[in-house]
Amino acid sequence: RWDHPRQNFFDNLSRAGGAIQQSREFGELVKDDPSRFIRILPHLKPQWHESYVGDALEDLAETDFSANALIQIIEDLDQRGFVSENFRSDAARALQKIAEQHQGLPSSILALLESWFSSHSQPELAYYRSKEEQISALKSPILFGIGTYHVLPSGRGNIVRAIAEGYLQQNPTNLEGWTKFIRLQLGVEPHPAVWVDMLSRMPPLLNGDRTQATELFDQVIRNCPEVFQYAWALYFISDTIGWFEPKETVQGWLEILQSNHSNFSQQAYGELLLIQYLRYQDEWSVARIRHHLTTQDNEAILCGLAHAASHLWFKQRCRAIATEVLYTLASSSSTSVQKAVASIFRLSRDNFKLNGGMREIIQAVCQNQKVLLEAARDLTEIIEVEELTDNNPKIKVPQNWGI
To answer: What integer pLDDT is reported at residue 3 of this predicted model?
Structure first.
């Protein structure tokens, strides 16, 4: 019996081993010759070739292939019965790329994505475990310059990112559509990692009505407080503090964070507390900071305060309170707090300012040999350049400090 070679090709695709590798290779071939994909597309079958088509769509989205044509292809494939979750996940990635490059997505494909989102089973909550909440070693800051990252969830995560960019990249930005979608997920979407994805794309809402946007942030956080177990979510909150209205709402979030007794949450609370003061200059933050400095009964909170103070000391708006944090904690017996305090000298080397506050910090550091040893490399250069010991009798460096 004679078999059409093209039919053999399609059947082999569905039966061959190493399907993931083959689908990727197929995607690369399509990327090199999009017209070939268009010719064979009518012969590809739902259930048999969905992974191949999904990879091809994602690769096509990276070419100069017409965005409108690719959107139409995805809609047609959906009508033909390409409905597997892998296909939809790949198609969503393709649509996200289109949205980012072509001013969002039209309403018809957004409606399709939203229907996919509501029925998609992955990621499953049964396998949820926050990989980002950890027993913090307290050695590094959570929110300052450490390359905070987030492992993007697949499945509904891919779909929600496409929906977000589909609304936010429109010109003008469709804040109303994005807001409506988020509200519809409250009490419905179960997975914290998907909420982190949504929350990380919510700051543009503050370009509209800030009070309403702040209320939506609050609803999301109280609906899924587990988002605070992800450094990625905390990073976006910290970067946006100052835009939220009223500030009392942020104070409530800090209380939620503090109520989780893990080292990770407690350190993040300490860092955010100083950021809250930097942005709002509020007495509530000052009172809390001074309470923790007085009681000194939580190492992780103190470590968070010290990390934040070392990173934010150069900002005039919070220099006084940062100075107070650092010279108070310079006497700490905690190795982690000592390291965080000592980091002020490394962080300020390029823009060192020997003012009254810095003198207080250096004097306090010189009273604790362990902190002094930790700061030795950076502080040596500062002392020599500024001739601190000659001009400031109160700054006494021990002869055996290990430099």
So the answer is: 37
Conformation bin of residue 206: beta by default, left when phi > 0, alpha when psi is -120 to 50:
alpha
pLDDT at residue number 22: 63
**207: DSSP letter:** G
Contact between 223 and 197 under an 8 Å Cβ cutoff? The reply is: no
Cα 305 from Cα 150, distance rounded (Å): 24
Boundaries of every domain in the chain: 246-388
CATH of domain 246-388: 1.25.10
- Rounded CA-CA distance 337/263 in Å is 13
Q: What pLDDT does 9 receive?
A: 41
Residue 279 CB partners (closer than 8 Å, separation 6+)? 241, 242
Please calculate the CA angle 318-233-180 and round it to the nearest 5 degrees.
115
Mean pLDDT computed over every residue of the chain: 88
Residue with tokens 């220099």: 319
Find where tokens 């002392």 sit.
383
- CB-based contacts of 162, cutoff 8 Å, min separation 6: 92, 93, 95, 96, 99, 105, 113
State the Cα–Cα distance between residues 370 and 367, nearest whole angstrom: 9
Half-sphere exposure in the Cβ direction for 332 (13 Å, CA)? 31
Q: How far apart are the first and last CA of the chain?
A: 87
pLDDT band at 317 (very low <50, low <70, confident <90, very high): very high
Q: What does pTM read for this prediction?
A: 0.88
CA distance 400 to 403: 8
Helix ranges (DSSP H) in 16-138: 19-32, 34-40, 50-60, 67-80, 85-101, 107-119
Question: Strands (DSSP E) along 184-279, which ranges?
Answer: none
